[in-house]
Amino acid sequence: MSEITSRREGDIQVLTFNRPAKMNALTREMYSGLASGLNEAAGDFGVRAVVITSEGDHFTAGNDIADFLANPPTGEDSDVARFLGSLLEFPKPLIAAVKGNAVGVGTTMLLHCDVVIASPSAKFSMPFASLGLVPEAGSSYLFPLLVGYQRAARIFFTGESFDAESAQEMGLVASIVADPLREAMELANQIAKNPPQAMINTKALLKASKHDSVAAVMKAEFELFSLALQSEEAMEAFMNFMAKKGKS
Predict the structure, then answer these.
(1) What pLDDT does 212 receive?
(2) Structurally, how many domains does the chain consist of?
(3) Does some domain include residue 211?
(4) Neighbours of 2 (CB within 10 A)
(5) pLDDT at res. 246
(6) Beta partners for residue 17, in sequence order
(7) Is residue 190 part of a domain?
(8) Cα distance between residue 44 and residue 200, in whole Å
(9) Of 111, 113, 99, 221, nearest to 163 (Cα)?
(10) Is 247 inside any structural domain?
(11) Rounded to an integer, what distance in angstroms lies between the CA atom of residue 112 and that of residue 89?
């Protein structure tokens, strides 16, 4: 069974994190599946919008640390880099349905989505610094732009989590509903009724002023992230994390 499933519902492509027993923690293969799913949807004229969702109680626990250490994404040809590039360049409406924990890249990827629908259980966090790493996916640029410098700095420096209501107030989440996937599909189907080239052009215009800046920041983040991954500081933080996880 694939840990990233892709299904078509009419004009909508649905990509689903399908590793609920591990809180949908992302492996290299899952990043590859996400990148392929987005790139295929981008090139398929019949797909009018994409919805990203998850099986189980959580969106994603972020990176699977063991897999991450075994396959560190230090090259621009890595599956992680491919996925981040596919997010940045995705030309069609992209909607996320989020419930439970959205950790690390589970939160930063939402900054590239056009609309995010969350359940009341949704909880967001970006604990990069506490793991000896740096923000990724352009979040060091996009998140302060969204919430202001000081609020972003506090969240990045502490790794503290925030709930769905805070995320909505920040502008990270558009609405909070009991069934976010149902709402996301209704919205996607509403969008799909519109002329598709108009949707693509509208998204391009909405993203135009920031696209090149985000691309440059993502490149810088990735280089620093790769260096950080190889540092003693990060290794110690990862080992501490794994030890705590083993005790829980």
Answers:
(1) 96
(2) 1
(3) no
(4) 11
(5) 64
(6) 4, 54
(7) no
(8) 13
(9) 99
(10) no
(11) 9
What DSSP string runs through the chain?
Answer: --SEEEEEETTEEEEEE--GGGTT-B-HHHHHHHHHHHHHHHH-TT--EEEEEESSS-SB-SB-HHHHHHS---STTSHHHHHHHHHHH--S-EEEEE-SEEETHHHHGGGG-SEEEE-TT-EEE--TGGGT----TTHHHHHHHHH-HHHHHHHHHH---EEHHHHHHHTS-SEE-S-HHHHHHHHHHHHHTS-HHHHHHHHHHHHHHHHHHHHHHHHHHHHHHHHHHTSHHHHHHHHHHHHHHHH-
The CATH number that applies at residue 159 is 3.90.226.10
State how far the Cα of 93 lies from the Cα of 51, in Å rounded to an integer.
9
Closest by CA to 156, choosing from 131, 177, 175, is: 131
- Cβ atoms within 10 A of the Cβ of 217, count? 19
Residue-range definition of the domain harbouring residue 126? 4-179
For residue 95, count other CB atoms closer than 10 A to its CB. 25
Question: Encoding tokens for residue 37?
Answer: 């799913």
Residue 210 within a domain: no
Per-position pLDDT tens, the chain of length 248: 699 999 999 999 999 999 999 999 999 999 999 999 999 999 999 999 999 999 999 999 999 888 877 777 767 778 999 999 999 999 999 999 999 999 999 999 999 999 999 999 999 999 999 888 999 999 999 999 999 999 999 999 999 999 999 999 999 999 999 999 999 999 999 999 999 999 999 999 999 999 999 999 999 999 898 888 888 887 788 778 777 766 65
